[in-house]
């Protein structure tokens, strides 16, 4: 089994392995099997298309956590220029689960804040699996304030299973750190564009996710609790994550139906991890477009619209006639 | 069975040998902390605080508001805001059925009750979470009621207080409930801009999405003694870090020690304490409005 492929991708993995083998044979022996190769490639393409055309919500949730999925620093590399990383909350420490920095988007200076997961085991641990501690959120807040002072738009890239549930995190006020960001982002005087690039895990995602625009990548998810967490509470078994994923409606298309998302950015066939360049350029195009729209408003208008947008969250009935 | 009981003829025995002592429902209560048997009406008179060990029992939102506000001039805010089921959510039970069951049980529409009233004669708006309503979970209704309560405060130029008691965001509304964290936090920026004080009074338990939004944003954060307050639940943390949690972890005293709450206040003193604090925080505000009112009346006289 190829660990770089998810369970339901295994048939594709097998084909891809065969193709690779054939290529090696061809280059070693100088025989022409390009027809056979072409056939296999077509089959792989068709298979990928058919598998990805019918992904269940739970499978999409797995793609959003795909080990090969591009992370914040990959977007920094492919989508921005002149990146200067900014470290530390100036109070306690630096949290590698959140990356902040100055960069240019199509020439315009912006401030980037993004969750960062690790690729190999060592980096995964270093990045704490993308689960920030309070100092991560406080670093984010520090650079948000800086962005406000220098008139830099804020680009937030969201990809976390959630805020870290640890002893130290609680001691240093995980709740307060998240709450403070929600409060400050609601009135931050600079345009904010938030993009879910992978997993939008609950409050840990929202803490850098309040803004003027919400973009979701096609195979990203966003939910109040992880499907496993929801399943273990409501179904009393984490194995029912599939059902929980369906019930909560956590995929980009479902969330667009709920009215929260401004744009779903399409991913290359088979998911963003198949081609960083395509997904980065799709996202770049969307970011530039939304930023241009936001810049047409005065800051006062922008803040008024943002506030109204936040106040419109929620559905309820009200029979008082008001 | 003890030897003495064996001696007593069965006709005199007041209890069967295997039967538990049955106490009429609603007359007596047992303190979960010190196991003292307490007479319910006595307990209620004592603000549902155990007279023996000062354990603070959980109380309903309405009891809370009754204990806290002056008797005169109470008016409920956003009473008619009711939950709907935007996702047609269903686990082992339909969300709709859970709502109606909770409504029957608690006689509330949802998990937050908001009331405008007076505290020692000072105008105030108070919101209280109803923990018995689906664990006090915050969904669209709680968020909307909170917002309307804060807006009422701003409109009347009076302080806002919340009593939290909640497991967090309501899963059955998924993103709709997650975003209530942003909504309740955002409306508090307006209260702050209006220069009005906000007291967050954290009672047992205050967790998850409620803790990580409106609960931690008070100008003054107050906790009731020994309340469980935190972001992640103790069980989740234990499973994640695979260590035993320290004694008193995530309890009020722990939070005060780590700088998250200003003070721990006994429920029986809550009214006086809040009234005293608010009087000071509002002192300049009131003289400011008074002076601006005088300024207005002078202007009016001059124009006249």
How is this structure best described in words?
The complex is a heterodimer of chains A (322) and B (304). Chain A has 322 residues and is of the alpha/beta class. In chain A, 48% of the residues lie in helices and 16% in strands. In chain A, strand 2 and strand 3 (108-115) form a beta hairpin. In chain A, helix 1 (10-29) runs antiparallel to helix 2, helix 3 crosses helix 11 (241-248) and helix 4 crosses helix 13. The termini of chain A are far apart. With 304 residues, chain B is an alpha/beta fold. Chain B contains ten helices and eleven strands. Chain B has helices spanning 3-7, 40-45, 61-68, 95-106, 140-156, 174-193, 208-211, 234-241, 252-257, 270-303, and strands at 28-30, 37-39, 75-77, 81-83, 112-119, 122-129, 160-166, 198-207, 220-223, 229-230, 263-264. In chain B, strands 3, 5, 6, 7, 8, 9, 10 and 11 form an eight-stranded mixed beta sheet that branches. In chain B, helix 6 (174-193) links the parallel strand 7 (160-166) and strand 8. In chain B, helix 5 (140-156) packs parallel to helix 6. The model of chain B has no long low-confidence stretch (mean pLDDT 90). The chains are: A alpha/beta (322), B alpha/beta (304). Strand 9 (316-318) of chain A pairs antiparallel with strand 4 of chain B.
């Amino acid at each position: 089994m190829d660990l770089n492929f998810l369970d339901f991708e295994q048939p594709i993995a097998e084909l891809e392995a065969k193709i690779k083998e054939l290529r090696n044979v061809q280059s070693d022996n100088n025989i022409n099997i390009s027809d056979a190769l072409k056939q296999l490639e077509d089959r792989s393409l068709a298979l990928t298309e058919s598998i990805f055309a019918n992904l269940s919500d739970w499978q999409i949730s797995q793609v959003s956590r795909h080990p090969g999925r591009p992370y914040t620093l990959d977007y920094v590399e492919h989508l921005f220029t002149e990146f200067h990383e900014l470290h530390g909350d100036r109070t306690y420490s630096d949290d590698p689960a959140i990356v902040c920095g100055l960069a240019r988007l199509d020439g315009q200076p912006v401030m980037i804040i993004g969750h960062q997961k690790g690729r190999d085991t060592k980096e995964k641990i270093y990045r704490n699996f993308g689960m920030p501690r309070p100092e991560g959120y406080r670093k984010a807040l520090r650079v948000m304030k800086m962005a406000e002072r220098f008139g830099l738009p804020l680009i937030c890239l969201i990809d976390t299973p959630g805020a870290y549930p640890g002893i130290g995190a609680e001691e240093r006020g995980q709740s307060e750190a998240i709450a403070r960001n929600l409060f400050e982002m609601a009135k931050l005087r600079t345009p904010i564009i938030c993009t879910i690039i992978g997993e939008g895990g609950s409050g840990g995602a929202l803490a850098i996710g309040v803004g003027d625009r919400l973009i979701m990548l096609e195979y990203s998810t966003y939910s109040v609790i992880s499907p496993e967490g929801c399943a273990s509470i409501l179904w009393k078994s984490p194995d029912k994550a599939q059902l929980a994923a369906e019930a909560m409606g956590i995929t980009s298309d479902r969330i667009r139906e709920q009215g929260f998302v401004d744009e779903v950015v399409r991913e290359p066939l088979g998911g963003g991890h198949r081609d960083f360049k395509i997904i980065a350029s799709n996202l770049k195009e969307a970011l530039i477009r939304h930023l241009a729209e936001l810049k047409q408003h005065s800051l006062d208008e922008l803040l008024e619209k943002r506030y109204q947008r936040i106040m419109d969250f929620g559905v309820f009935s009200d029979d008082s006639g008001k | 069975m003890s030897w003495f009981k064996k001696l007593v003829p069965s006709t005199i025995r007041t209890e069967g040998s295997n039967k538990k002592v049955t106490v009429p429902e609603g007359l007596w209560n047992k303190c979960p902390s010190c196991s003292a048997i307490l007479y319910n009406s006595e307990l209620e008179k004592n603000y549902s605080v155990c007279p023996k060990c000062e354990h603070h029992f959980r109380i309903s939102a309405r009891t809370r508001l009754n204990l806290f506000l002056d008797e005169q001039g109470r008016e409920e805010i956003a009473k008619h805001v009711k939950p709907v089921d935007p996702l047609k959510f269903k686990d082992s039970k339909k969300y709709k059925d859970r709502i109606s069951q909770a409504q029957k049980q608690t006689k509330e529409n949802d998990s937050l009750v908001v009331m405008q009233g007076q505290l020692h004669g000072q105008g105030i708006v108070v919101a209280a979470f109803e923990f018995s309503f689906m664990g006090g979970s915050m969904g669209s209704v709680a968020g909307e009621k909170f917002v309307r309560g804060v807006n009422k405060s701003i409109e009347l130029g009076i302080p806002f207080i919340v009593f939290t008691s909640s497991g967090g965001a309501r899963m059955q509304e998924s993103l709709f409930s997650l975003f209530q964290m942003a909504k309740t936090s955002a409306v508090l920026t307006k209260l702050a801009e209006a220069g009005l004080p906000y007291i967050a009074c954290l009672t047992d338990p205050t967790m998850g999405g409620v803790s990580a939004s409106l609960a931690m944003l008070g100008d003054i954060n107050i906790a009731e003694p020994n309340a469980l307050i935190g972001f992640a639940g103790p069980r989740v943390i234990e499973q994640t870090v695979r260590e035993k949690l320290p004694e008193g972890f995530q309890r009020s005293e722990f939070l005060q020690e780590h700088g998250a709450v200003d003070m721990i206040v006994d429920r029986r003193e809550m009214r006086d304490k809040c009234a005293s604090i608010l009087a000071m925080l509002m002192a300049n505000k009131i003289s400011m409005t008074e002076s601006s009112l005088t300024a207005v009346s002078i202007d009016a006289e001059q124009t006249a």
